Amino acid sequence: MTDGGTARRSRITPEREAELYRAVLDLLREVGYDALTMDAVAARTRSSKATLYRQWGGKAELVVKAMRSQKPGGIADIDTGSLPGDLHAIVDREDDCVMERNAALMRALAMAAHTNSDLRKAFKELLVEPEMEELQRIIRRAVDRGEIRPDNPALDYLVHMLVGAFATRSLIDDLPPTREFLASYIDAVVLPALGVPTH
Asked: What sequence ranges are listed for the domain HTH tetR-type (predicted)?
């Protein structure tokens, strides 16, 4: 992140930022990404378009950061002393209702990202890559503790497994992702693939 980005964001209070993000997510649910405009966000939040562009640069960055604001903080600091404990702690922080709403938004954004390179870039840089880095830290600790062999081929697919479970639950089962489902998926699929015993 550049200093310019930090300076840009410091002009709006955290409360105002949270209010703007809520409005963006509401609009996203109502009209979808393609039909969402900075004019509509400005009108909904009683702000100027100039302020929005100065603060976020554009629609893609604003939408992805609004999505990120829904997540309950970083996961890199979770350290229960075991990989099963860490993965279950990540899932336990989520709320089923919020998860269901976020899954619907993520599906809509993933669809829009196919045809919008700005959104795809922001999605990857601001949401996917930071989460992957945090997850890698948790995995490195598990390798250092001797829980996972460093040459385990499933390590390269951990993010795919977790994102896949979250994203495809509604597609395959016509049900939202829930903490119970993700916890059972971790025990049945993720940990065995990594060679970690489940208790």
From this structure: 14-74
